[in-house]
C-alpha cells in the first residue's frame, strides 16, 4: 500500500551529535529567572550554588544554536536510542481516518519515559565537575527513576525525596530506584529541617511536590559536593530533550514526510519543547509552517486558563521566579487527578512562544484521556502513560476531524512513556470511579492572586 515502514529507525550514525537550542532562533527570548529576594535576574554565580557550572551555562545561553552532546552522553543514548518513530497504521485503520499518524515513542527504556534524556545529561555534568551526588524530588516517580539510572551508570550518589503518598502507593517505583542504588526518602521526612518543621505543623501529612522540592534543595545546599537537579521546566532540560525532535525530523526527512500538525502533552513542557524544537526553529526562521498543539489536563490548565507572569517554580516558594504561564504556585490540583501533568507553571521557552502566537494549547478531561489511552492500547499494543495519553486524545480528535473533511493530514505526536506503574489510575477508570475536576474561575483567581509582585 505504501513504502513507509511501521517503524522508522535511524542508524546510530544518524543520531544527533548536538542538541538544538531553540532560544537562539527566538526573537523574543524567554524572560530570565529572577532572584526571589532581590527581584534581579539570577546571575551565573548565584545559579552555580544550585546547579553545576556547565548546566548554568546552558541555562543562560540564549544564542548558541547547537551545543555538542558529549561523547559519553551519546554513548549512553545509544543504549536506548534512537527511539522509534512509529506509523500508527493500526490506529488509522481503527479510526477509519485518511490522516497519517506517527508517534515518537520514548517509553523504550526501563525508566519508561523521555526523562532519561535529560537525567543522563545532568548527571554527566555533575560528575564532570567532581561532585559526589545529586538530590531531587519525585512525585509520580518517573523522574526519580530516570535520575537513579543515570547516577548508577556514572557512579554518583542519588538522593530522591518522594512525595509520601506516592512512596506508599507506588512501592514498585521506589524499589526500581533502590535497585539503581538511589536513597529514597518519603517526604516530608525527619532528615531535613524543613521536613521537621512541616511535620510539626501538619502531623500525618502525606506530602506534596512543593514540600519534597524544599527538602531536596535543603539536602543539596547543606552537603558539600551535592547539587539539586530538576526534570522539567528549565531551559537546559528542553535543550537536552531536543534529541527527541532532532531524531523525529531526521526520520521524517528520510521519507520526505512533512507534518501538518505536531502534538505533545505538556506538564512542565520538556517533552513538547524537545519534540517541536527543530520544527519550531524552521517556523521561527520562516522556512516552514506547522500547527503545534500543547495538550494539558483540564484540572491543571496553565496555558489555557493561566496568566503569563513571574511565579515561583515550587509550592515552597524557595526556588527562583520564572516568567511563565501559571495558575499560581499555591494551586494544588484536586486529589482525584490521576493523569499526571500536575505542575502549576510551564516552561518559560514554551510560554514565550505561546504568548507570541507560535503554538496552540488545549485542555482535555481525564476520563476522555483514559478512554483514548485504552483505545490506543487496544489498537497499537503499547500501554501508554496517562501523561502521554493527553497527546493521544488530541491526535485522535484531529484524525477524526480529517475523517469528516476527507483531508489527508500528517499528524505527529509524542508518546512520552509507558503506564505500567499507573494501573491504580487505570483501575479507577475501568471501575467507573474516575471523575473529572475542572477548577472554578474563583479557585483559579484565588491562586493567581497569590503570585509574587514583580516590577517588570
Ligand atoms: C514527566 C512526564 C511528562 C510531563 O513532563 P514534561 O516536562 O511536560 O514533558 C509526560 N509524560 C511522561 C511519561 C512523563 O514521565
List the helices and strands and how they pair.
Elements: E1 7-8, E2 18-20, H1 44-47, H2 53-60, E3 66-68, H3 71-80, E4 85-87, H4 89-95, E5 100-105, H5 116-128, E6 133-138, H6 142-154, E7 157-163, H7 164-169, H8 171-179, E8 183-187, H9 193-201, H10 209-221, E9 226-228, H11 235-254, E10 261-265, H12 270-284, E11 291-297, H13 302-305, E12 307-312, E13 321-326, H14 348-355, E14 360-364, H15 366-380, H16 386-405, E15 410-415, H17 423-430, H18 441-448
Parallel strand pairs: 5-15, 6-7, 6-9, 7-8, 10-11, 10-15, 11-14
Antiparallel strand pairs: 1-4, 2-3, 4-5, 12-13
Helix pairs in contact: 3-5, 5-6, 6-8, 9-10, 11-12, 15-16
The structure holds pyridoxal-5'-phosphate.
What do these coordinates show?
The chain is of the alpha/beta class and 456 residues long. It folds into two domains: 7-14 and 81-112 and 242-448, Rossmann fold, CATH 3.40.50.1100; 19-68 and 114-228, Rossmann fold (3-Layer(aba) Sandwich). The chain is built from 18 helices and 15 strands. The protein has helices spanning 44-47, 53-60, 71-80, 89-95, 116-128, 142-154, 164-169, 171-179, 193-201, 209-221, 235-254, 270-284, 302-305, 348-355, 366-380, 386-405, 423-430, 441-448; strands at 7-8, 18-20, 66-68, 85-87, 100-105, 133-138, 157-163, 183-187, 226-228, 261-265, 291-297, 307-312, 321-326, 360-364, 410-415. The protein has a seven-stranded mixed β-sheet with strand order 1-4-5-15-10-11-14, with helices on both faces. The longest helix is centred in the middle third of the chain and has 20 residues, at 235-254. The chain is globular. The termini are far apart. Pyridoxal-5'-phosphate binds at residues 113, 115, 142, 232, 265-271, 341, 385, 387-388, 416-417.
Amino acid at each position: 500500500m505504501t513504502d513507509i515502514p511501521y517503524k522508522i529507525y535511524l542508524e546510530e550514525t544518524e543520531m544527533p551529535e548536538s542538541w538544538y537550542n531553540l532560544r537562539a532562533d527566538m526573537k523574543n527570548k524567554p524572560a530570565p529567572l529572577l532572584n526571589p529576594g532581590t527581584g534581579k535576574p539570577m546571575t551565573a554565580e548565584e545559579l552555580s550554588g544550585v546547579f553545576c557550572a556547565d548546566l548554568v551555562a546552558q541555562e543562560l545561553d540564549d544564542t548558541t544554536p547547537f551545543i555538542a552532546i558529549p561523547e559519553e552522553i551519546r554513548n549512553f543514548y545509544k543504549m536506548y536510542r534512537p527511539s522509534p518513530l512509529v506509523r500508527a497504521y493500526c490506529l488509522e485503520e481503527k479510526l477509519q481516518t485518511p490522516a497519517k499518524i506517527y508517534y515518537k515513542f520514548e517509553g523504550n527504556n526501563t525508566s519508561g519515559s523521555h526523562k532519561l534524556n535529560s537525567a543522563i545529561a545532568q548527571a554527566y555534568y555533575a560528575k564532570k565537575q567532581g561532585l559526589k551526588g545529586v538530590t531531587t524530588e519525585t512525585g509520580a516517580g518517573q523522574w526519580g527513576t530516570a535520575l537513579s539510572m543515570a547516577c548508577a551508570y556514572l557512579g554518583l550518589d542519588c538522593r530522591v525525596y518522594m512525595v509520601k503518598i506516592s512512596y506508599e502507593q507506588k512501592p514498585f517505583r521506589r524499589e526500581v530506584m533502590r535497585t539503581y542504588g538511589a536513597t529514597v526518602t518519603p517526604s516530608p521526612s525527619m532528615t531535613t529541617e524543613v521536613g521537621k518543621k512541616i511535620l510539626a505543623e501538619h502531623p500525618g501529612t502525606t506530602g506534596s511536590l512543593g514540600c519534597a522540592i524544599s527538602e531536596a534543595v535543603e539536602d543539596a545546599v547543606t552537603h558539600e559536593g551535592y547539587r539539586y537537579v530538576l526534570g522539567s521546566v528549565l531551559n537546559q532540560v528542553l535543550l537536552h530533550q531536543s534529541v527527541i525532535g532532532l531524531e523525529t525530523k531526521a526520520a521524517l526527512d528520510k521519507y520526505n514526510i512533512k507534518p501538518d500538525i505536531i502534538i505533545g502533552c505538556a506538564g512542565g513542557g520538556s517533552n513538547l519543547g524537545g519534540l517541536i524544537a527543530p520544527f519550531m526553529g524552521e517556523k521561527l526562521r520562516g522556512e516552514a509552517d506547522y500547527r503545534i498543539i500543547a495538550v494539558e489536563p483540564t484540572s491543571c490548565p496553565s496555558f489555557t486558563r493561566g496568566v503569563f507572569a513571574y511565579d515561583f517554580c515550587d509550592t515552597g516558594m524557595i526556588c527562583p521566579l520564572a516568567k511563565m504561564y501559571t495558575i499560581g504556585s499555591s494551586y494544588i490540583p484536586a486529589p482525584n487527578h490521576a493523569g499526571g501533568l500536575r505542575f502549576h507553571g510551564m516552561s518559560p521557552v514554551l510560554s514565550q512562544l505561546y504568548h507570541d502566537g507560535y503554538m496552540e494549547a488545549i485542555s482535555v478531561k481525564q476520563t476522555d484521556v483514559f478512554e483514548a489511552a485504552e483505545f490506543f492500547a487496544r489498537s497499537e499494543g503499547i500501554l501508554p502513560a496517562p501523561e502521554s495519553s493527553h497527546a493521544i486524545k488530541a491526535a485522535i480528535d484531529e484524525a477524526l476531524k480529517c475523517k469528516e473533511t476527507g483531508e489527508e493530514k500528517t499528524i505527529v505526536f509524542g508518546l512520552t512513556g509507558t503506564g505500567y506503574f499507573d494501573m491504580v489510575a487505570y483501575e479507577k477508570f475501568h471501575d467507573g470511579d474516575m471523575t473529572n475536576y475542572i477548577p472554578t474561575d474563583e479557585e483559579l483567581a484565588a491562586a493567581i492572586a497569590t503570585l509574587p509582585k514583580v516590577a517588570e
